[in-house]
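Researcher: For the annotation table, I need structure tokens for Peptide deformylase. Please keep the output clean. Sequence:
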Amino acid sequence: MTGEPASLISPGMSVRPLIILPDNRLRLVSDPIVRVDARVRDLVADMFETMYDAPGIGLAAIQIGVPERIITVDVGKRQAKEEDGDEEGEKNPIALINPEIVSSSEEISVYQEGCLSIPDYYEDVERPARVRVRFMDLNGETQEIDADGLLATCVQHEIDHLNGVLFIDHISKLKRDRVIKKFTKVAKERERD
């Protein structure tokens, strides 16, 4: 989880608008990145800026309208708060390009998830407690990380986005239908205004 260049967060970043449910783009399957170049690094910088501004602990490129296989995560502050009550904590930004889960534990954990694309809605979701993830870093080099706890949950949540899957797809159909109906109604009201 180390080895990211110091220039990960650089001047010139911008906060991009988030795509909100029921936007159909959230169901797109994202395309792989062929080459890590300045465009990809700039996109990652914008993703971190957008994620921190929201504020969130993870973001997939599709959530800002870019259907490419890139996710950003930073559970450092949230984990420090949960483990030690430390409000400050340190940032631990990780950019994962073309991430794929190569193994996962049989042990399951339940975490109350939320999503920047489904604001103010939270639900318990079951996922593997530990995963090993292969990805390219910002230098275009293949890396693997072992993730557990909140990081494992966050990485799985964001990789789901790359495959057009939302965390509400892991809850009951009744609850999912209610959430979709609510956000569809809000979107229609916004269009009328």
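Researcher: And a one-line annotation?
Model: The chain has one domain: 6-185.
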